[in-house]
Amino acid sequence: MLDHRPKMFEEASHTHTSKKLYVILLSFIAVMIIILVLESIIPGIVTTRPMLDELQKQGYLDGSQKLSMKDSVAIATKVSGIPKVMIPSLFSTIFGTIAALFYCRFVEMRPVRSMGIRKKKLIPHYLLGLAVGIALMTAITLLSAAFGVNSISMCSNVNYKLLAMFLLGFFVQGMSEEFIFRGYLMTSIGGSGQHTLVAVGISAVAFAFAHAGNPGFGPVPFINLTLFGVFAAFYVILFDDIWGICAVHSIWNFTQGNFYGISVSGSSNTESVFRTTAVSSKSYLTGGKFGIEGSIFTTITLLIGTAVLIYAISRKKVQETAAAEGKTDEK
Length: 331
Fold this sequence. Notes:
α7 (160-191) crosses α8. This protein has a two-stranded antiparallel sheet with strand order 1-2. It is built from twelve helices and two strands. The chain has one domain (7-326). By secondary structure, it is mainly alpha-helical. It is globular.
């Protein structure tokens, strides 16, 4: 049943560009370079002063300390977690959404509905996605606590206004990554006539490699990011729209970082309701510097979630086939 092709694949087939896989991938790389440049402008501006302050504080600017690559990465990670840097950075990812939309609509010249942009059931699908995202990250975090891998404590003097800004920022950031990897890349490949699993697999692996520069990235984080990409792809295929997975992705990140206080894909810890602290020293259990997304608890949860989606897609295809046969019999 994994050859099920959503309506958006058919809609994406009406492209004015080449349907050869290597051309699609080369075009995607070019678009990604443009996206990375656009998304780096605002973070580059807001990061400059805090970076200089931190370098001065640690004695790197006056020559008393030699700056190594490891030190520069550590400082950059620390600075990136400062709210006045991280929040604008989250909002700047809107350029990714805009670039993906522009390319699909004006270069491939296909309708935006082929990216999963539909009005029908937008609100219920988005609300369901929020519930699914919260449930997934809560299951992962509580599992790690239940097995004694992490401990969870409540933070005092939580700045809820700041949390609201993070939430809005993650709404933009999660949406952007889904528009790029599922709304654009997956549907471009699926619309070219490639098997559904090829579209799912390539978009998932591309999503994982896009995080390769994050602190703590390694084999388990790569596997889990790929699994999340597969889960996201099947979620889009099941509902045949982009909104649900945008909600899942956004609230997954917010719940992880600003509710449970866990590093999001290697980012620095920031304002949160709870603080989750590693008890175990084993990185495959805690996720290490990458955060709980690099933990086997995430692996297990995503495998179960993906299996549920595959089953749901299979049931949907059976029902659609039965309905189509019923209409044929009536004729």
